[in-house]
Each structure stands twice: as structure tokens, then as C-alpha cells.
Design a protein that fits this description.
Elements lengths: L2 E8 L5 E2 L15 E8 L35 H7 L8 E6 L5 H15 L4 E5 L4 H11 L6 E5 L3 H11 L3 E5 L16 H18 L3 E5 L12 H5 L2 E6 L6 E9 L7 E7 L2 E4 L3 H6 L9 E8 L2 E13 L8 E4 L3 H15 L6 E7 L11 H13 L7 E3 L2 E2 L5 E2 L4 H10 L4 E5 L1 H4 L8 E5 L2 H7 L4
Parallel strand pairs: 4-8, 4-9, 5-6, 5-7, 7-8, 13-17, 15-16, 17-20, 20-21
Antiparallel strand pairs: 1-2, 1-3, 9-10, 10-11, 11-12, 13-14, 14-16, 18-19
Helix pairs in contact: 4-5
Amino acid sequence: MAKSRVEFVCEVCGNSSPRWDGRCASCGEWNSLREVRIQEEKVQISSGQKEFSVEKPVPITAIPAEGEVRLQTGIGEFDRILGGGLVPGSVILIGGEPGIGKSTLMLQVLYTYSANLGLSTLYVTGEESLAQIRLRAERLGSLNSNLNILVETQVDHVTSHLREMKPAVVIIDSIQTQYAPEVPSVPGSISQLRECAARLLYQAKSLTIPIFFIGHVTKAGIIAGPRILEHMVDTVLYFEGERHHTYRILRAVKNRYGSTNEIGIFEMTQNGLMEVTNPSACFLEERPVDGVGSAVCATLEGTRPLLIEVQSLTSYNGGFGAPRRTTSGIDARRVALLLAVLEKRLGLIFVDQDVFVNAAGGIRIEEPAADLATLVAIVSSFRNKPVDPELLIIGEVGLSGEIRSVTHFDRRLHEGERLGFKRCLTTKTHLKKENKASGIEIIGAGNIREALDLIGLI
């Protein structure tokens, strides 16, 4: 008879514990341990019987080369994230905060496959009714007879429909609503997620059907459930954006068939999500002329250069209490580092100043090429002097106050030239290299003191 034992598994990180604790010992999340009953079965193997695998190891040179086949949606931003299109048999996990637009984007993707390519697609939902899906499709203009809707939460029924229909693309909304009856736990638990994802993954690989999993996220911003779910799938996408901004960013954090450095930018409208083909112009269209505390930097997301406005506001707090350091879209630790460099190398005092830094448009800047622009924006607000609106700023700032070079400088420079910038403040290293951009003057500086002096902030 099979024995059972009880473990307490964290819903956030998947760590197991023999007893319940208020806080997970692995990830530190409070009240995240859930009781899971695990069946243990003893398998007896006779000593005279040997198991042999049907498959045998083969040299990698003996494997026939197959051409890469991809299904393109026609949505350029979406195809860019996937590496040029959807690979048959791949499994993609897409997560994001509630209401960010995951279901809207996936319904639009299915419509493009159904209407433009004439493929039979299947949308499996466990959270909405048929009438709700129909209303959303009418609002998006995504009605097509090749787009099939299925309301089902039992994973075995879903797999039966997949084998019978053999659709070209499948959406599971959401993977947390699916359950296997023989697994003794509630839908959305660790064991249910692992089992349902494994069964759907097998169907995707055996039938060469690409499947999208829509996943919920925790308050920490990661996809709910065990991290093994992200290891099982081929691609993991995060749909990001601020609720009060119209722009949404689709970012790949794992992709077996493409780069993880690319991002796709969309704009939420009344008719659904529209791709943004010229994001730099959109992010700068409302930039104030001669605004104090505003600087433009050129960041690189994958192969695409983006011009982002960095805004800063410094305010005297009366010298009472600890000064506030508030950031949006920029790492707060990076801003604290730049403030320390300004105080040490230039003697500027921010101990009685509240400092606020923001990347306009709701985008998140992660690379250090925006250091110099962030520093210039802070000093501009501190000195109450505007920055030249036709000045583009590119450079990383070191702890000694030196300005360092960045990768793919020519791409960034061409993007600035295309949008009408006349000058570029950067390190002297880029002056020594040949730059093919014409019509834009390169101003080189060795350190932050020299850079701020060149643009009149000292």
C-alpha cells in the first residue's frame, strides 16, 4: 500500500519544509507555506531483469540539420521578442500584473494567426465565460471563425481537445486554473502546476503545437508558483507597465530560440494594444523645452536604441530627518551611487535635499549608459539651470568621477541624429573612434567636472 507524507511547500519559490513556519526560510515570504500530501510508492525491480532505453546516443554530427520554421504574427514587436516568430512545438510562459493586458494581447495574437494566416487556433480559459470573451473580441475587432474558444479547467479534457483538433496555436488562460483530478491538492498549488504544465508540455512537443501559458504574478512581481515552471518552458515573457501610463513593455527573460535582450513596446488604446514602431519619438513628444532637471539619454534594449528623458527634482527638506531618495524606472542604488560621487568629487551637498529621479514614459532603464544623463539631470535641478534641449548625453560614470565608454555608440548616435539632436556629450574615448553619424557634434569629457563645465552647470 502506498504511503503518504505531508510537506509544506512555499507558493512563491517552491521550497519545501517538513513543518509549517510563518516565514519561508528560502525566499523570506510570509504566510506562503501550504500543506501538500505526497504519495510514496515502492517500486520493486527483480535482480535478473534489466531495463534498456530504446534511444541510443548518437554523434551530434549524425543528427540531420533541419531548417528553422517560424510562424510570424505580423505584429512586429511581438515577433521581435520571440526571435523572429513562433517556433512550432514551443511553450511560452507570459506573466504580468492583473489588468496589464495579457489576455488582450494573447487574443489579438490568436486573431492575427486566424485571420491573416487562416490557421485554426484555440483559446482555453478557466477564468471567463464565452460571453465575456466574445465581448472583448468585439471590442478589439478580433472576431474570426478560425478562432475557437474553450471554457475548461480540467487538463485531461484540454489535452483531449488538442489531440482531436490539432490547432496551430493554443492559449491557456491561465495555467493556475488548470487541475488534474488525481492530484490531491487544489488548483494553483505547487503539485497541480507542475503536473498540468508537464502534461501540456508533452502535448506541445509530441503534436508540435505552440502553447502559451498565461501566468499570475505575486506581489513581488514574479510568476506565481514554483520556479521549476520557468525552467520547463522554452520562453518566459514578462508584460510590464505602469497602470497610469499607456505604454506597455514585453520583455523576454528566457528564450531558447532567440535573444533575451529584446523588448517589445505597445500602447494601450480603446481598440486594444497597438505596437509602437517609433518609441523614441513617443517618449520625447511631451518633453518641455528648456526644462530644469531634464536630460535625454540613449539606452540600448537588445538591438534597438531608445532615447529616454531622465527627470530629476531636488528639494530642500529643512535639514530635518533623513533625506528622501525616490526613483521610478531607475535603480535607486545607482542613484545613491551617483549622489555619493557628486558629493565626493564635486563637493555638492545633498544631505539636506530630497532627490527624486524619474524615467519618463514608464520605461525601466537598467544599463549604466544612462549614468551621465541622470547625473546631469540631478545637477541641473540642484543648480536650477536648464540643459540644452538639443543635447544628447551618453556615458557611464565610475566611482572616481571618470566617464566611461558604452557599447554600440554609433547606433545610439544615429538615433539621436534621426530625432534632431545637434550635440552629444560623452567620454573622450568616443572622440578617438570613427563615428559615421553626420550633423551631430560630439563633445568629449574625461570626468564629470569637465562634462558639467562644458555644458555650463558649474
